[in-house]
Input
Amino acid sequence: MSYYNPQIIEKKWQKIWKDSKTYKSRVELSKKKFYVLEMFPYPSGKIHMGHLRNYTIGDVTARFYKLQNFNVMHPMGWDSFGMPAENAAIENDVDPKKWTEKNIANMKSQLMKIGLSLDWDRELSTCSDNYYKHQQKIFIDFFNNNLVYKKDSFVNWDPVDKTVLANEQVVDGKGWRSGAVVEKKKLSQWFLNISKFSDELLTDLESLTDWPEKVKLMQSNWIGLSKGAEVEFKISGLKSFIKVFTTRPETIFGASFLALSVEHPFASNFKDDKKFNTFKDTCLKFQENRKFDSEKLGFNTGLFAEHPFLKNIKIPVFFSNYVLINYGNGAVFGCPGHDERDYDFAKKYKLDIKCIIKDKQNELPYCDSQENDKLQNSSFLDNLKLSQAKVSIIDKIVKDELGSEITKFRLKDWGVSRQRYWGCPIPIIYREDGKVLPVDEDQLPIKLPEDTDFSFSGNPLDKHNDWKFTVCPQTGLKAIRETDTLDTFFDSSWYFLRFCSSDSKNIPFTDKEINYWMPVDHYIGGIEHAILHLLYSRFFSRALRECGYKVPKEPFLKLITQGMVCHETFKTKDGKWVEPSKVFFENDSYWMKYREGNISVTKGRSEKMSKSKKNVVNPDSIISEYGADTARLFMISDSPPERDLEWSIDGIKATRKYLDKIFAFLKEKLRFTQSFKNQENLTNEEKKILDFTNGVVDSFTNDIKNYRFNKAVAKLRELSNTLIKSKVKRDLFDYSWSTYLRLIYVIIPHFSQELASLTGLKGLMEDLKWPTSNKKTFDDGLAQIVVQINGKKKFLINVAFGITKEKLVETIKKNSANDDINNKKIKNIIYVPNKLINFVL
RNA sequence: GCGAGCGUGCUGAAAUUGGUAAACAGACAGGACUUAAAAUCCUGCGGGUGGCAACACCCUUGUGGGUUCAAGUCCCACCGCUCGCACCA
Output
């Protein structure tokens, strides 16, 4: 009979924690704060393994720092606007709000069962007007500070979701959620002025010393700085100038054509040209579906541009598909000698290919230049090194007022308009006199209407006349509400601030609370948010500061990006995925039961759990069958957090077995204690056990601090293995096992608390704080030394600690069974004190 | 194409940052208990050679080279995998 019954004890302790508000957090100025945050979930209705892993990692952290005497805040909320709710409304005729609330209730009860040390009093939900009224205020602040603006623009239109996508939400030309091929559509959109902070967002990455390098690099690439110059080319016979951006202005004497994007403003000169319009359509299609190097297309305008420095040189002007409107100026000068793309283009259209770098005539296109390369055929730049030439050409460009030195960023402003119902309404009205005005703050929140018809395609708000038509309260003039809603990334860009003041009624958050709790000390979530969510949040902090809010520039001090939860996959011969639980192994191959017989299946690689690959395991059923503590312990013992975790039901079973064993053993034998006083008269074995226990306290503490949870667990298992086998006196037994329980508490709190309570602890483990080690209590005066010959380990020897090299060599020679040391000539002896000695023969 | 990271037993991994490779687990195999199975416990588990045996010796961190008394760890080249960006001017 198993003594260990997680179903009962987990419920019991969860109730006690809840009733006694154990995890409630308040500002306490006298205590050091610690803000632990896991990325809040979208309430899909069910938690998945990724959640379980994420929140377990966060919970171990939160409990650990709490016991280390920090004032810990560990909140949870819901990223609850977004398309699944609206899709449910369209498909199943349910109210998005009710649908969402039901999902939240469901997921919350699942989260409760994990036993997380969350402060539920701070719970927030982005779709509640209690949250989004503050968000609307923030939007208005942004509006009044020129951080948001409206512009007509071609947008990425997702024909399946019928909405606009941000550039970042387009992956390989397809919608990030729907997977549909994205189309271009012109709409008037709200944009956040994130590019205003490009420079800052980039350089401040350096200050994020506790972020993974990988994430910083991804952000840095995304912001995409390039330094160069803008140069103007005059079009012969016209008054027009074409401004060109280049990172290699020193190659300007190699220019033999101009290439413009078909979306460049200059194209308006050809808007009635049928041939051009056909060409433009072709180019846009090419650009949308590009995979690798597509063919370069050219449209010769018949016009020529004047070279800024060579008055008698005229170069042809083309439109081409290889020049993109959304980078630089949408126009380049072609330098085919030293740029592969320009080279391809020039070859195709038989344009001049000039070599302007010395001795490279036979290596064209010569693109990656060397430090010592010098220029030729370049007028006043001849014989200069490229780096020198760059400086002098920029000087000249500036002096002659032909252009300027300039830095460009890849980062574009963030389009936040969504033609959707289930999002935060944008608090703007369009008055009949043409004015675009923010809603008065005393009218906030602008709530979503609840009687909405979802039977049309497109945006339901746009069709909801009662809601849409309004009047301006100041003037009484008729007005129309903005019917677009905000991108949900807007919602998640400041929720961590709101957690600090979740009950603040009139303002989003208070200075006092922000000042105390922010920044988030440890932020834990998936690597998939490395760019978007984190970059937007960093932008929000800066934008809010411009509006007068006192928030830190960088919201997240330390970032932990957890890996995915993976599971094996199986496929039938005709390529259908098969649930791993249906597969069995027999006669050296894998089979699945199918009607009467078995069919053979092949094992694929382990992949991220996903419905489509049928390799999902539901954490809720694992928790009800094996217990939350088993699930928690398994989630962190196999792999370090940032790496992918391989799901294994055998691992779960074995973890449960281990807990069963320890529970039954300790329940009978342990008397819980916090101290061990009687240190005299210990046997050598007992001394070792005591030292080992203390050593584990240190290593475990360090491993948890460094997010090496798997090592922390290994060390604890080593301790329990040792303790089970050894016979030590009662006091020491109690002390070592109690220490074990106090450490493992942060991982499996119900288990540990229950055992401690059963064996004598009155009260909560929470109140005991973290165990301290007494460092090395005993010293047997010996050092174990590795004896090597030519760098290879031969044997170990125990000698007095601190022994000199000479004494050690003497001892080894006297006792050594290895003839080589005594007989062969020793060339050299390397001695690492108290550790290792190497005889070089 | 550019950038980053990784490569250790059958598997997940560890190795105090240049000093005993494989800690801790999982799978598997053998044994004990049992009429039997499950559960539980014990043992083995990188490869090779020799030995009845306890054991001894040798090899082993993707491949090849280098630095060093000493390399999984540092350097160079190659192979393979993963991720990010990609006609970015």
In short: Chain A has five domains: 32-137+489-565, 225-409, 567-617, 623-768, 782-840. Chain A has a mean pLDDT of 89.
